[in-house]
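Example 4.3 (complexes with small molecules)
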Amino acid sequence: MKEYDEVRLPKYDCLLFDLDDTLYPVSFGLQSACSKNITDYMSEKLGIKDGEIPDLSNALYKTYGTTLAGLRAIGYNINYDEYHSFVHGRLPYENLKYDAVLRSLLLSLPYRKVIFTNADRIHAVKVLTLLGLEDCFEGIICFETLNRQQNFNSDATDSSPIFDIVGHFAKLDAEIELPKTPVLCKPSGESILQALQIADVDPDRTIFFEDSVRNIQSGKRIGLHTVLVGTSQRMKGADHSLESIHNLREAFPELWEDAKKLEEILYDGKVAIETSVTA
Ligand SMILES: [Mg+2]
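Answer. The structure with magnesium ion bound is encoded below.
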């Protein structure tokens, strides 16, 4: 059995990628435009006073992962499709260009590759198509994947009061419990576990690429190998840090080396394995 034991499978079999600010740099300006659109949505569609929006969106984002998840938690009845088309409708998509370097890096890696984003499918497909990466992944886990059952209830009456989350934090009233959100999104551990289950991957054999430190930390707690993208600084929870996803080969030569080894095993290892099993 000795020879058989020496046949080692590659350490990883899946690469899980966040989308925005991970597969393209934050300097492209999509994130800042998106934040501006969310502010406009809160003002124009929900009638929240402009002066209250910065503190409110900050509290919601920090507490619930995304502003949308937070708005739902505190009592706003929001049509998800309308929200997504509003906040993603006017982004500077023209800044996203065909990325031949990333495309060839991804295609040269014979591992399962999956996108995991909090954004909606229309946005995800648009970004991947503009980057020329739409066929580099086996699937996209997005907002709709994790929130299929809980869309807008058009019959709901808006009679219930909105929870005052900014006031709640100002008073630090530990007696009152924060309302729960029906939206499942990163960085919640539950959202990551569900994504892993849907993609059918083993966290211990998966590398998670993300630009958000809190998502990375949450992924680490679940047992994923983590790579923080967008900075070369090491952070707690990140096994590696990459200034750009383009640095993948320099940072992880073993991904290609392992793949080559596996290819060799598959090519001429069959006989060796059979021999060792009967030995
Ligand atoms: Mg991101």
